[in-house]
Amino acid sequence: MAGLSGHAFADQTDPRLDHLFEELRVGDALRAEENVGRILEIWADAPSDTVDLLYARAELSADNAAFDLSLTLLDHVVGLAPNFAQGYALRGHVRLATEDRPGAIQDFTRALELEPRHFDVRSTLAELLLSGGEKRDAYDMFQKVLEWNPHDENARQRARVLRRELDGQEI
Q: In terms of pTM, does the model score above 0.90?
């Protein structure tokens, strides 16, 4: 039945995302987890069968710590679908796992250019900024996470701690 929805493929351009984000932003916490799951599902739905298959195999490879294979597959994913934000997001996470921080940041930046609402990428970037001692930028990034997903308790906690640390400092 899901295939009858009129959307053979989704990704960050899927019009259903606008409604899900609005519901996530103004809705209650009870539905937040469900909405986040649906958003992640739509983002991971690649724009073609080939890219979808490559992405799924890259994700499985990453889950099994076969990072070289995952990166090779993700290079093909972003080559075939250069506007598929989730391909860059996953490649960024895999690059982080292989300690390629500059490559990860480059991929995360591209993912955000394609999908500015990508709260998962923003959260990861906030942690990277924080690990580099850039507290103000990390705080700002956590605020962006909360703008799109106000129910993210980790981002809320991290922002609260950073706010206390930044109070009294010149902003």
A: no
Six-digit token pair at 125?
């970037």
Task: Give CA–CA dist 143/155, Å, rounded.
Answer: 8
At residue 29, the pLDDT reads 75
CB-CB contact of 51 with 87 (8 Å): yes
Q: Are 90 and 57 in contact, with CB atoms under 8 Å apart?
A: no
Cβ distance 142 to 150 under 8 Å?
A: no
What are the tens digits of pLDDT across the range 70-121? 999 999 999 999 999 999 999 999 999 999 999 999 999 999 999 999 999 9
Q: Which two tokens stand for residue 60?
A: 């499985």
Question: Three-state DSSP class for 168?
Answer: coil
d(CA 12, CA 20): 12
Tell me the CA end-to-end span of the chain in Å, nearest whole number. 52
Alpha carbons 84 and 12: distance in angstroms, whole number = 7
